[in-house]
Each structure stands twice: as C-alpha cells, then as structure tokens.
Design brief:
The chain is of the alpha/beta class. Helix content is 42%, strand content 15%. Helix 4 crosses helix 5, helix 15 packs parallel to helix 17 and helix 16 runs antiparallel to helix 17. The two termini are 50 Å apart. This is DUF87 domain-containing protein.
Length: 485
C-alpha cells in the first residue's frame, strides 16, 4: 500500500486509491469545467504523493506555489528567467530530483507556451543517467496542447504542442508521467489526450465534452447526461491506476490553498449613495515626488537576459580625453579570456549561437572592450576553437597547420574536428562519443557517430576500429593520428 494514495471516497464511503507506480506507466487525464474541483483534485494528488515521487508542476495561474512552504517544492518564476536559464533549471531539476512548480502567471499566454515548451523539452532531453521517475502535472493543458490554431503565433503553438506530445507519447521511457488537466476536452489535442490510460472526469455541460468524456469512460451516449449532474469535487474515475470499472470519487480534503481562493462571500461596504458618489468622483491624489517614487519602488529580480539586453542597448558615453585606449594585444587578450570563460561553462554548446554572441559582446564591454572586431560567423569559429581547447598563443607549427586545415571545415563540425586534432597532436586517445556529442551540441551519441562518419566521407579524417572496439582517428593531411583506445 505504500505506493497507493487515498484520493477520496466512493458512494458507499469506502476509500478510493490511486496506484502511483501504475500511474507512472499509464498517465492521467483530468477534465472538468471551471468550478468543478479540478485544481482541488490535482492538489490532493500532489499532497498525498509528495513523499513518494518527484513532482514537476506546470502552473499557468500560480495556484500551486503554496506547495513550496508546506512540502518544499521549489517555485520557479517563469517570468524571471531567460530561455537558457529555464533550460538549465530543467536539467538540474532532473539531475537533483527536485520537486518544482513552474509558475507562469506573470507571462502572457504566448510566452507561457514558449516557456513551458522550453522547460518540458529540457526535461525530455535530459541524459539517460538522470531518467528518474517523476510526475509532470500540467494544469490547463488545453492552453499548451490546443486542438486548433488560435491567436498565438504558429511557432509558439507548434513548439508547445510538440513538447506536450513528447511528454505524453514518449515520456514514459524517460521516467516522465504526464498528468494533464483541462476544462474542455474538445479544445485539447486528441493525440495528447489519447495517450492517457487513466481518467477522472468532472462536471461538464457542453454536449461535445460530455460525449468525449463518456467515450473515454466506456459509457453509452445516453449515460453521458450524469456527467452534467456531478457535484463540485466529484469525479468519475477509470483506469489501471484507479479502477477497472468506472467509479464515482468524492475527492478528499487538502492542506494547502490556492492564492486565488476566496472563502465564502464578502459583503460590500454599505455607505450612503452620496458618500459612494463622492469617493468615486474624488479628485486624484497628486503624484509623489521623484525622490518618493525611488524610495517606494520595490523592483523585482531582474533576469540576466533582460539585464544583458538593457546593457547592450545603452548608448556608450563618449570616451573621456584621458581615457586609456587598449592596444591590439590587450584587446585580443580580453577576447581570448572571455571565450575561454564561456567555453568552460557547463552546457555552453547547447545554447543558441545568437544568445552566445550577445553574451560575448556584453562580457567584452564589461571588461572595457567596446569593439571586439568579430562578426557572428567569426565569433562562432573562435568559440568552437575555445570549446575544443585550441586557443594557442602563439601556435606551434603543427597547431598552425591544424588551424589552417580547420578553415575548410563547416562551422557546425569545427569543435569536434579540432578536439580530435588537438588529441592527435598531444598523443592522447580520441575523445569518446559522449564528449564528441557535447562538442557537437547534442546529447545523442548516434548523432555524434554520424558526424564522425560525415568527417570521414569528407576526407578530413580516417577512422580505424579494431576487433576489440578500440578506435583510432587519423588526419591524413597532417600525418597525425590518435593512439588506439
């Protein structure tokens, strides 16, 4: 019974259990109109399973942030981080098995979709050594997996839908069990909803939603009317993790509350009509002085991306007459130091090239170098050299020949090619497939092997593998080869 949680009770008052271990393999779909108790059900599920399995909540309304104080969930404010930071936070969430709530209430719907897609994709792309079991709860899932195009851009809709499809269709092998909740089944993409094997259907009134709910529960069309009569907090459950036959469940109580919950009715004030009219038509108060505004302002945490953009957009002041101008050697030293600093950071090869170039520009300015002299293409090639560890100063004869040959290598293959050449010069074994994959900007070992095959077809390298599986990579044009390993 340790893997089972108490959802509530049936009509006879007997407890209804949900098998968490079975849920990890079969996923769950929750449906109910606004006010049906859908969020209450999710909160009950989260509270009861908090000590059993890792939990990751995609929260578009910020309703589940209260879990942080009571159960230790880490609340991530989606509005405060850039795409790169969201990706890094998701990767560390999987690595350290942290239970988190991604609060998206500070974002518009399109940015909510983009942020959720980035976070879910990073969870999905985590290395296999971090594939620990986790429940991924997505509230208002019809926003992130819409059945039809809406007012958001096609790019945001496609990326969000793809992330949700991966979660529900392919997430099980990676330890991710999707728990999706929606107000409207008709608005939820069918290929996402169809992957759930467990269902909890709450009150709904539209015929199209009742028919789909009845079909999922294996009920006849004429029985669908009872879904309309369900009380708040009552659901019909079915599935291998709940019950093999439809069962009515009254969801039990919860310990935490949503921030938007209003307890009962709050009567309005009862002043006279003249007093209320006077308050409504009162003259606006004079705005506070500038000094008062500065003292009263409570700025929130600034994201690194917005801070970098703000710095980059500032107009640089005219240099003072006594300002010391940097020599070419000093400027090159700063460029090399910044590149090496960026190349040493974890996950740098997985970031978009445009973000890296912007980050590079800002770091150079912060060190007093206003013009680094590199365009986007030049930066990408220099960054590949830094990642591969071939920023020589000055280069030796073999190093110079390697860099000269590298000029004919496409930029996306440059970092792994230089790493192989650097190993051959140093007499070290060729980097393994995992290392080459990271240098190539992927976590797929298969893609790294195909990249090596492409280099061989391009006559840049020759790969030899003995019967023991040891590999040596030669660069014929340089008469170099790595030792067998």
């Amino acid at each position: 019974m340790q893997n089972q949680i108490d959802l509530g009770s049936d009509i006879a008052g007997k407890p209804v259990y949900l098998d968490v271990e079975e849920l990890l393999a079969t996923r769950l779909l929750v449906q109910g109109n606004s006010g049906s108790g859908k969020s209450h059900l999710l909160r009950r599920l989260l509270e009861k399973s908090a000590g059993i399995v890792q939990q990751i909540v995609i929260d578009p309304e910020g309703d589940f942030v209260s879990l942080g104080e009571a159960y230790g969930h880490v609340v991530i404010d989606g509005a405060a981080y850039s795409d790169v930071e969201i990706t890094r936070l998701a990767a560390r969430t999987r690595e350290h098995r942290a239970s988190v709530v991604l609060a998206l209430d500070g974002l518009e719907i399109e940015n909510q979709m983009r942020c959720a897609a980035t976070f879910l994709s990073a969870l999905f792309d985590a290395p296999d050594k971090h594939w620990y079991p986790a429940l991924v709860i997505v509230d208002e899932s019809q926003l992130f997996a819409p059945s039809a195009a809406g007012e958001v851009s096609d790019d945001a809709r496609r990326s969000s839908l793809a992330a949700m499809t991966n979660l529900m269709c392919r997430g099980r092998k990676r330890g991710l069990a999707g728990v999706i909740a929606t107000q409207r089944l008709a608005k939820l993409a069918k290929n996402v909803a169809a992957e759930a094997s467990n269902f909890l259907m709450g009150r709904t009134f539209l015929d199209i939603d009742m028919v789909r709910a009845a079909d999922l529960l294996g009920m006849e069309r004429r029985q669908a009317e009872q879904i309309r009569d369900l009380e708040r907090g009552h659901f019909l459950g079915l599935g291998p993790a709940i019950s093999r036959r439809p069962v009515a469940v009254r969801i039990g109580s919860v310990e935490t509350r949503a921030k938007s919950t209003v307890a009962g009715l709050t009567p309005p004030p009862m002043p006279s009509g003249e007093d209320m009219a006077a308050m409504l038509h009162a003259q606006p108060e004079a705005p506070p002085a500038q000094a008062d505004l500065l003292s009263l302002a409570e700025p929130g945490p600034a994201s690194s991306a917005s801070l970098q953009e703000h710095i980059a957009q500032q107009t640089a002041p005219a240099p003072a007459r006594n300002e010391i101008q940097l020599t070419a050697e000093e400027a090159e030293a700063i460029v090399r130091a910044v590149l090496q600093e960026m190349a040493s950071e974890e996950g740098c090869t997985f970031q978009p090239a445009a973000s890296l170039f912007q980050d590079f520009t800002v770091r150079c300015r912060m060190r007093g170098l206003k013009t680094h002299g590199l365009d986007a293409l030049g930066f990408r090639r220099r960054f590949a050299r830094a990642v591969a560890g071939v920023e020589f100063d000055p280069p030796a004869e073999q190093d110079a020949r390697l860099l000269e040959l590298a000029d004919s290598v496409p930029e996306e293959l440059l970092a792994p090619f230089l790493a192989i050449g650097n190993a051959a010069i140093a007499g070290k074994p060729c980097p393994d497939d995992e290392t080459l994959a990271v240098l190539y900007g992927t976590r797929s070992v298969g893609r790294a092997r195909r990249m090596l095959e492409h280099l061989e077809r391009s006559d840049l390298v020759v790969v030899r593998t003995d019967f023991g599986g040891r590999r040596s990579v030669a660069i014929p044009r340089l008469s170099l080869a790595t030792p067998m390993a």
